[in-house]
Amino acid sequence: MSEKVARELAPREQQIMAVVCRLKNASVAQVRDAMKDPPSYSAVRTMLGQLEKKGLLKRDRSDVTHIYSPTGPYGSMKRSAVRRLLDVFFPNQPALAIAALIDESAKDLTASELEELRRAIDRAKAKGKS
User: Fold this and answer.
1) Residue range 11-22: average pLDDT?
2) Are 101 and 22 in contact (CB under 8 A)?
3) Is 37 inside a domain boundary?
4) Same structural domain, 15 and 66
5) Which end of the chain, N or C, is more open, meaning fewer C-beta atoms within 10 Å of its C-beta?
């Protein structure tokens, strides 16, 4: 998914993309069932169609129930979402964003998650020295 397209998604479209990416393949009803406070069936169907037109989803029409799936890797979509969040709330301050996330979830982090954070910091330090 291109960065430009990702930035243009409305909040509901972002929510629907997250559901489809998590489920990998989903019908309109499955997407709607997986959403918190979902809009109407027809609204979800319309937004899935818009996401398909934007090239973010593909639709399998081989059965009566159409099935939607992402056209790109979920990892790049997550990175785009994080980038948008950083741009809005932490422009040019990624360290503050990371610190805020850690402060907010510190009590829930496992030892292995903390170790993964340490490794990520070490990788960042090594890149900075190159």
Assistant:
1) 90
2) no
3) yes
4) yes
5) C
Residue-wise pLDDT tens digits, 37-83: 999 999 999 999 999 998 889 999 998 999 999 987 766 667 777 77
100 and 59, same domain (yes or no): no
Distance CA 34, CA 19 (A): 7
What is the rounded CA–CA span in Å between residue 40 and residue 72?
Answer: 26
Average pLDDT, the chain: 85
Q: How is residue 94 written in tokens?
A: 């990624």
Q: Is the dihedral of CA 62, 65, 66, 68 positive or negative?
A: negative
CATH of the domain at 50: 1.10.10.10
**CB neighbours of 20 closer than 8 A, spacing ≥ 6?**
26, 31, 48, 51, 57, 68, 69, 70
Domain that holds residue 10: 3-70
What is the pTM assigned to this prediction? 0.60
| In contact, 71 and 54? CB cutoff 8 Å | no
